[in-house]
Specification:
Number of domains: 6
Bound molecules: 2-(butylsulfanyl)adenosine
Radius of gyration: 32 Å
Number of strands: 24
Distance between the termini: 59 Å
CATH class of the largest domain: Alpha Beta
Helix content: 25-40%
């Protein structure tokens, strides 16, 4: 995005951009607050918010109803009870420079200027990078705890907050107000974060991105014992509704919190002048990397509560407080290598391996280079791309970690570039399997995809697990008892490398049992660790596995003659979903015929001279078929599979005798015994026409649970409506 300076925006452009920014920021808010999965750094987010503000300042009449400057955070996630905060939970205005801080103080002086001798004091304390929570105490007893949510309504996470040791269930000492909502930050230490990551890695569990998101995820657990196992921490720094001020000043109030049993930041001070505030900012900044948890700035607050009240609020923010953010930390290092990682969908992702360097207390050794164009700095049309950077092996680079943990390259120090450094040549073959790696043309935009992708499909080890999971999934072979978890296990223990191996598992029974037993042991051990209890005597592993295994092998055998459309879908050819697979099955009738045409296409100059014109099949699919079947490396895998599995030829059984032949049928609501595409294919095989919406031409509506407006239209038009079971009986498949 090329950004026009705010000063040169026309009113029309400004309105357009405010609209775009409102939508974009709302989306980032949602990702951050509701999903705990931000996709941009804090610095990038702040830049968006600042631009929005700058435009609004220039065009105050254009401030939108849904402007990000008018709201805080994102609405609460579904799942927990909602709590309306008695006093809204606010966010903080931000300062990025010493000048911003000076302006803040100046605004205060001007506001109180009738009172020239007024002595404004401030507090300064770290801004903890966690999640804020509000804890309600009635007569000293913790009764309810909530997340911030959108600032007005949060989620009731009382049970989870009760597991946090830093949060007293009962206030200690004396002198607490009858009712008070204590507010503060829940966070996770680096040590705890690392320990969790290791526990997870040991069992092949999920990866955790950073302590903040992990703390957020931990707080949203349905099961409080999971939250408990995460050892979250809490600092108290503010309050909401209260029946009495804790003390006359901010500083003394927080000291009271300490007496009542809370942890408060040891780095909070009281200061009189801007110089003292800035000095403390730098002291905290110096200690940042040794604190053991993330902070992203220093918060200054007016100390006297009386003055806080007088100065008041703007929408969503107190006027009397500001967060002085730390600049994103930067460091210089060199690029030692550029490696290509192959993702599960075959994408080639370049990663720069760096000479290790500490940035913001974390050692950084890798940084993503995104894609081929990013490294060159321009796209395939020679257009410079945003943030693109010509990085070469041997280059000295400046890297940055913003508030989030993901590091990025900011710039290349060209003066330090070695004389022999050459532009990086992005490989055109997959480093894992050697297949060609290509960039697709997006049919709609005509543009080349920025990602290069391995065409090795079936033979590429990097893609293997994902493909195997797909192979057994519901719309594909749908093998009962063989879900993603078992596939992972069999793949990791070397028992299943390609789909054909699934069908020979039976011949390797002892090895399969060993793998299952090992996993069971591991899981039991983990549960023991988590609960602190030792295991009761369970049935012996062998006893349980025998039954389960026989069932699994029987389920696998039951799938040796799958429907052709399922089989085609199961192959996981790019762009071939269930519907397209069904169309192909109907067109080609046997897998052998489809393979033959695919191979012919690969040899032909123009695929269209070989491939018949079929309604609903465009170039994307045709090219995908040609690439897949034309890739000789897929031959062995496919041959091995077809030695085990014999897809049923697709027989078009248009029986004029069928009750539904010639009728127009509409399916609506959810079907329980088959997928939508299966139902459609089945109806068509019997000579029915399947339509997407109900009209006067409709003869029959098959309605499952959740059917909506179509049902009403049908009854208005007097069209017959039946349920799934009746439908199955009518077409002779009923049980
Ligand atoms: S005071 C009335 N103090 O920053 C002001 N907030 O951007 C209420 N935060 O939602 C907030 N450390 O999650 C305050 N020492 C601190 C803080 C702090 C972190 C967070 C808090 C708040 C956000 C505002």
């Amino acid at each position: 995005m090329s950004e026009k300076p705010v000063e040169s925006l026309s009113e029309g452009e400004a309105a357009e951009e405010l609209k775009r920014l409102a939508a974009e920021i709302a989306e980032h808010d949602r990702r951050y607050h509701t999903e705990d999965a931000p996709t941009i750094s804090d610095a990038e987010y702040d830049a968006l918010a600042r631009r929005n503000l700058a435009i609004e300042e220039r065009f105050p009449d254009l401030v939108r109803e849904d402007s990000p400057s008018r709201r805080v955070g994102a609405p609460p996630a579904e799942g927990f009870a909602k709590v309306r905060h008695a006093v809204p939970m606010l966010s903080l205005a931000k300062a990025y420079t010493d000048q911003d801080v000076a302006d803040f103080i100046e605004r205060g002086r001007r506001f109180f200027d009738r009172d020239k001798d007024l002595d404004i004091a401030f507090t300064a304390e770290p801004k903890i990078d966690g999640l804020s929570a509000s804890l309600r105490y009635e007569n000293g007893v913790f009764v309810q705890g909530a997340t911030r949510g959108d600032g007005t309504v949060g989620e009731d996470i009382t049970a989870n907050l009760k597991t946090i040791a830093d949060i007293p269930k009962k206030l200690q000492g004396s002198g607490w107000p009858e009712i008070i909502e204590i507010r503060g930050e829940v966070y996770m230490t680096y040590a705890e974060f690392e320990a969790l990551k290791q526990r997870s890695a040991a069992v092949g569990g999920q990866d955790y991105v950073n302590p903040r998101n992990t703390a957020a995820g931990s707080l949203r657990q349905k099961d409080p014992s999971v939250t408990a196992s995460r050892n979250l921490k809490f600092f108290a720094y503010a309050w909401g509704y209260t029946t009495a001020d804790p003390a006359p000043t901010q500083y003394d109030s927080v000291q009271k919190f300490k007496e009542w049993g809370f942890k408060v930041s040891p780095l909070m001070v009281r200061a009189k002048s801007i110089d003292e505030l800035i000095a403390h900012y730098h002291r905290i900044e110096e200690q940042r990397s040794s604190l053991g948890y993330d902070i992203d700035g220093v918060v200054y607050k007016v100390d006297q509560l009386e003055l806080q009240r007088r100065w008041g609020f703007v929408t969503g923010e107190p006027r009397w407080a500001i967060a002085h953010k730390f600049p994103a930390e930067q460091a210089m290092t060199t690029v030692e290598r550029i490696d290509i990682q192959v993702g599960r969908t075959g994408t080639l992702a370049p990663v720069a391996r760096l000479a290790p360097v500490t940035v913001g207390g974390v050692v950084v050794e890798n940084v993503t280079l995104h894609n081929e164009d990013y490294i060159k700095g321009f796209d395939s049309n020679g257009q410079p791309i945003r943030d693109g950077i010509d990085v070469r092996i041997g280059d000295t680079v400046v890297i940055q970690r913003a508030g989030d943990v993901i590091p990025q390259i900011v710039s290349v120090v060209i003066d330090k570039r070695p004389a022999n450094a050459v532009p990086y040549e992005f490989p055109h073959t997959c480093p894992v399997c050697g297949s060609p790696a290509t960039r697709e043309i997006n049919e709609k935009t005509g543009k080349e995809d920025s990602r290069r992708r391995c065409t090795g499909e079936m033979i590429c080890a990097a893609q293997a697990v994902e493909r195997l999971r797909h192979f057994v999934s519901r719309g594909a072979l749908d093998i009962e008892g063989l879900g993603a978890e078992n596939i992972d296990l069999f793949f990791n223990s070397g028992l299943v490398k390609t789909a054909a191996d699934i069908f020979t598992l039976k011949d390797r029974r002892p090895a399969v049992m060993r793998a299952l037993a090992e996993r069971r042991e591991e899981q039991a051990k983990l549960r023991e660790e988590a609960s602190g209890k030792t295991r009761k005597n369970v049935r012996s592993v062998e006893e349980r596995n025998y039954e389960g295994l026989d069932k699994l092998f029987a389920a696998i055998d039951a799938r040796r003659e799958p429907e052709l459309d399922r089989f085609i879908f199961a192959l996981g050819i790019r762009h071939i979903g269930e519907t397209t697979a069904a169309v192909l099955a109907r067109q080609f009738s046997t897998i052998e015929e489809l393979i033959r045409v695919g191979k012919e296409m690969a040899k032909a100059e123009n695929p269209h001279s070989v491939f018949p014109s079929i309604n609903g099949i465009g170039d994307t699919v045709i090219n995908a078929l040609r690439d897949f079947f034309g890739n000789e490396r897929n031959d062995d895998v496919l041959d091995a599979l077809l030695a085990q599995v014999h897809p049923k030829p697709y027989v078009v059984e248009i029986s004029a005798g069928s009750e539904v032949s010639g009728k127009t049928v509409v399916f609506t609501g959810s079907l329980e015994k088959m997928t939508r595409s299966e139902a459609k294919a089945m109806a068509e095989r019997l000579g029915a026409k399947v339509a997407g919406s109900v009209s006067a031409k409709t003869d029959l509506v098959v309605a499952g649970p959740g059917a909506g407006s179509k049902l009403k239209v049908a009854s208005d038009l007097g069209i017959e409506v039946i349920d799934e079971d009746t439908w199955l009986q009518r077409i002779g498949r009923g049980g």
